[in-house]
Amino acid sequence: MRTHPPSRRRRTAVAAALVAAVAVTATGCGSGASGGNAKSGDKPFIALSNGFIGNGWRQTMIAKFEAAATKAQNDGLISKFKVVNAPGENSATEQVAQIKSLLLQKPDALLIDPASPTALKPVIQQACDAGIKVVVFDSAIDAPCAHVLLNSFKDWATAAAEPLVKGIGGKGTVIVSRGVVGSQPEAEMYQTTQDILAKNPDVKVAATVNGMCDGAKAQKAVLGVLSSVPKVDGVIGCGDGYGVAQAFPTAGKPVPAVTFETNGRALKYWQDSKLDNGSVAVMSDPGQSVAALWEAIDLLDGKDVPKEMTFPIVLVEQKDVAAWAGVLKPDEYAAWPWTQELFRQQVEAVKSGAAPVQPPIPTAAG
Length: 366
Description:
The chain is about 40% helix and about 20% strand. By secondary structure, the chain is of the alpha/beta class. It has 2 domains: about 15-150 and about 285-310 and about 330-350, 3-Layer(aba) Sandwich (Rossmann fold); about 155-285, Response regulator (Rossmann fold), CATH 3.40.50. β7 (about 170-180), α7 (about 185-200) and β8 form a beta-alpha-beta unit.
């Protein structure tokens, strides 16, 4: 998910080591591409700027993009691609500098998972003015020249909270584990959660913590408040339930209903523990980076693509836990397998107002 931690949060040694390991990834071969190469007959150069790399969702997002871009390159659809991850913890200033550096390399299209919905506007306009196609994904953006590919964060927050509230019988005590406070998606999700809780006055919020949509961070945050909360019936989160679930035995308390992340480790735990108490697994789709790649290619080819499109969240219900758990590595997040054909079907669905395309659950063979 488009998860964006505060730009001035003190970096930890772990985050620093992670950034050092994956801060910059450049893939592709061939001579450099300019902003006009696609129009002159050469295959395009696609660049991706990622504002934050410090959680498993972002790492899956990059891995899915790189796999799809490598195949697109091998299939002759693009000449090369480059991924650059901002070195800090979601600093818009750092990402602006990163994008300016990328612009000097003259990509034909620039994909952006932004650190801020507003701060990147000038540099995005600079890219557009240079004739570069810009596709922003994973967040709304204040940049009229960009194409925007979104998940429905309201749907995500609704799917996280409503089944849990229903599972605890519409009454009890909950902890709310927020995502990355300050980001546009988190603000929308938190408001949705508050709206749902307002409709269920018998559900009381005992504590609110910042879990960052990350299991390890949420585990620590929830554990920090459990001593002051005598009874917890559920923890409404944004895909951090595995870590949250570990906090309760540590505190000597039973595991309540939680909002699981959609990675292999969490889903296997859910499957093995047989929790049936309102728990659910839901997150935004890290495969959205692949849809953004197909969008950039179609835009460069002159195809008509809506300026803004909303793509489906990944919701794993109890009946589908085994299927997803069987195809995911422990740290891999569930992602819809967007092919170019499925992307184009989604474009047509958006144009016609039809129901969104629902890709299939991937199989081990696929």
